[in-house]
Specification:
alpha+beta; 3-stranded antiparallel beta sheet; Dodecin subunit-like; about 20% helix
Amino acid sequence: MPVVKVIELIGNSPEGWEEAVRSAVREAAKTVRNIVGVEVVGMTAKVRDGDIVEYRANVKIAFVVEEERG
């Protein structure tokens, strides 16, 4: 039975929430292997002068832990 761990990240983007989620997954993939899922926990935005300037997505990323061999 595989072991799955979950980490929580915040991704951001000036483009939109979907791109903020993609940003978080891409960032996690730089150091985490075997990513199997993402859950969007929350969405917020930074506002300046009445306009959204940055979208933020709080996500949980699940990945399978590799077994030690030896």
